[in-house]
Every structure is written in structure tokens, then in C-alpha cells.
Design goal:
The chain is of the alpha/beta class. Helix content is 41%, strand content 13%. It has 14 helices and twelve strands.
């Protein structure tokens, strides 16, 4: 119910897989609130679970009874970062708990955040992070050894997981995530006529919208008549508040808009002439992928898995993450080069489809992993996944 990228992708998977599987959703959402919505129509049931709870003997026995009563055959865990579902403590991993009651598991890490992040609060000192890393590292390995496959969503993240947790490197594979349909609508933005720079996503420091605002403000006069629009909810970390304050201070109310959460971001993208993904940390970039699929020329940070989608100079422009001056220059160059916008837009559409970034391809690849998990269960052995 959070509505972020992980939630969106899980929902896209459910919409396909529920046609062939009895699916029980496990999350810390209240069951009644969840099942009364659209999700209630496509899942067989819901188990409300505290992902930070302790894996005691009574918890294990309760889980075993639930698994047997509902004939659970496989568990698929989704994590917003490499540490989640109790895996920062050895012996506390929930996938290990499921495996102990005979349920093979698949795990998806939707974002890697660096070796020293995610297992203690970001406010902790470097010394504290280093001192507690061995415990978290062993806990993560315990989780990885408990699953048939750990899925990364980009080649960048796959390399990070394999190198950082090398004893379990043979558990790590990669598949691209998407909620795009293979046959997209024939509608397309007017790349030449549109004069709007777009960004879609939760407004957060990590997403870099403050960098995009500062880059636009730096060249606001030269970028006339272009406008800048942010579509997405306020994450509450202060980034949106900073942008609002700067809009008022620089009197850019008529040039920069914070649209807030919108139910149909794809429809909003029809007003875009340029799409910008200024992230400081990003596994892949779901909104960037969707903008490119519509033929919107992108400017994006050279970070994480983004360069796997945006080939610099071929289907878009890459800039160093957090570099306001470089982003500002890229905005001016692309906004006033209609030929480049058209060229990048056409190449972007081909790139996304060429990489197989569709929801059907995602679901098919996951089903292949599920079959391998069933094979592991039936043969009573681990099956390394390598690609």
C-alpha cells in the first residue's frame, strides 16, 4: 500500500501471475484495508507480517501450520534494498524461516545502497557502521544461502551483490523489471511541440529532484519558454519543501510545478518534450523506462543501472550524478535541438523494447525461476543460478 516502485512492480506481477497461481500476499499492511482494494480481487489471501519481528520457535510453528493449511509451495520476497525481512541479523532471516519449513524461496533486491548502508540508521557514525558490518554481512549471507535465487534488477546491481557477498555469488541472477505492455498505445507525445521538462517519482533527496530544480533555475532565462514539472508524492524527507521554498524565492511559480501524486503518470507524460532522471542512487528507473518507451528523449544520471538503458549520445544524455552545472548545460542543449530530441526519442523506444523490458517478459522469467525452485524442492538440493 506504500505505492512506491516496489509496490508498483509487485502489483504488475500479481496481475499476470494470479491467472495461473493461488497467491497469498505477505506484508505488514492491515489485511482488511488491503483486501478491500484492487489487490483483494487478485490474491487468494493475505498474511499480515511484521518484517522486523523475531523468528522465535512459536513463530516458526505458526508459520508451519499456515504453510500446511494453505498448501504454500514457494515464497517470493521483495526488498527495497539488500537488507530487509530481518536479514541484517544472523539467524533472523524470514526466507531462512520459510526454507526451514520446506518452502523454497526467491528474493528480489530492488535497489542496492552500498556495502555500509541499510543495516543501521544513516545517522550512525562511520565507526559504528564498520563495527556492525560483519554481523549484517553474515546475516545477508544467511538469507542468500536460504534462497534458490537472488534477483537483481540491473547488471550494475548484480555485479555489486556478487562482489560484495561473494561466498553466495552463485545465488545472484538478474532480470529487468517493467510494468510496460508489449503493445503500447499508439499515442505519442508531441516531442517538437511540447515545451515541458518532466520528472516522475517520489520527491526525495535520493531521487535528485533538487538537483534538477537547481539546474533549471540556473538557466531559467535561457530555457524560456520551457517549463519544469514534477509528478509524484512528497516523500516527507524535506526535498519537496526545499523545491517549494526555492520556487517562491526565485519567483518561478509560473515555470516550475509540483503536481503531487497522479493516478496515471503515463498520461501526464504526453505533455513532455524532455524527460530527466536526476537520481543520486537508482537501481534502474521505472519512470525513466516508461518515458523512453513513449519516445521521450531522456537526460539521466550516470548512476546504477541507468546507463544500461540510456546509451549516451545514442538515445539520450548522461551526466554525473549531482552535477548541477552539467545537467543545466545538457538541458539547454537538448531543449533547443529538436533534431536531437527526435533522434533520441526514436532510439529510446527501440532500446527499451530491445532490452525486453515488458511486464510479460518479467513474469515469464520469474516463472522460470519458480520452476527451478520447485526442482530444488523436489530434488532436495540447491541449484545455482548463473548468467
Amino acid at each position: 500500500m506504500l505505492g512506491g516502485g516496489v509496490s508498483i512492480l509487485v502489483r504488475a506481477l500479481l496481475e499476470i501471475l494470479h491467472q495461473r497461481y493461488r497467491i497469498f500476499l505477505i506484508s505488514d499492511d492491515p489485511s482488511r484495508a488491503l483486501l478491500e482494494g484492487r489487490i483483494g480481487e487478485i490474491v487468494f489471501g493475505h498474511l499480515s507480517w511484521n518484517p522486523h519481528g523475531r523468528c522465535t520457535h512459536s513463530v516458526r510453528e505458526g508459520l508451519k501450520q499456515w504453510v500446511e493449511a494453505n498448501r504454500i509451495e514457494i515464497a517470493h520476497f521483495h526488498a527495497g534494498a539488500q537488507y530487509a525481512w530481518g536479514n541484517r541479523f544472523p539467524g533472523a532471516s524470514i526466507p531462512a524461516l520459510f526454507a526451514s519449513v520446506g518452502v523454497p524461496c526467491v528474493w528480489t533486491t530492488h535497489l542496492t545502497t552500498g556495502l555500509l548502508n541499510g543495516y543501521v540508521g544513516p545517522q550512525r557514525s562511520l565507526l559504528t557502521k564498520i563495527a556492525t558490518l560483519p554481523v549484517a554481512w553474515i546475516g545477508k549471507l544467511n538469507q542468500m544461502w536460504s534462497v534458490v535465487a537472488e534477483v537483481a534488477v540491473s547488471e550494475h546491481d548484480k555485479h555489486f551483490l556478487r562482489s560484495s557477498y561473494f561466498p553466495a555469488a552463485n545465488r545472484v541472477t538478474m532480470l529487468y523489471h517493467s510494468r510496460l505492455f508489449a503493445q503500447q498505445t499508439n499515442n505519442a507525445p508531441d516531442i517538437i511541440g511540447n515545451r515541458t521538462i518532466f520528472n516522475v517519482g517520489h520527491i526525495a533527496w535520493r531521487k535528485g529532484q533538487h538537483v534538477l530544480f537547481d539546474a533549471f533555475a540556473m538557466q531559467a532565462t535561457r530555457l524560456e519558454p520551457w517549463t519544469l514539472e514534477f509528478v509524484g508524492p512528497d516523500s516527507g524527507d524535506g526535498c519537496a519543501a526545499y523545491i517549494r521554498h526555492q520556487i517562491d524565492s526565485l519567483r518561478l511559480q509560473h515555470r516550475v510545478l509540483l503536481r503531487g501524486d497522479c493516478p496515471d503518470p503515463m498520461n501526464n507524460l504526453m505533455r513532455a518534450g524532455v524527460y530527466v532522471q536526476p537520481s543520486l542512487n537508482e537501481a534502474l528507473g521505472l519512470a525513466l523506462q516508461e518515458a523512453m518507451s513513449l519516445g521521450i528523449p531522456p537526460i539521466a544520471s550516470r548512476i546504477g543501472g541507468i546507463p544500461e538503458m540510456v546509451q549516451h549520445g545514442t538515445c539520450g544524455t548522461l551526466v554525473p550524478a549531482g552535477d548541477i552545472a552539467a545537467l543545466s548545460t545538457a538541458l539547454v542543449e537538448l531543449c533547443f535541438d529538436p533534431a536531437a530530441r527526435l533522434r533520441f526519442g526514436e532510439a529510446s523506444k527501440k532500446r527499451i523494447m530491445g532490452l525486453g523490458m515488458t511486464r510479460d517478459a518479467m513474469a515469464t522469467q520469474y516463472e522460470n525461476l519458480y520452476r527451478q525452485a520447485f526442482a530444488c524442492r523436489d530434488s532436495k538440493k540447491r541449484l545455482p543460478i548463473l548468467n
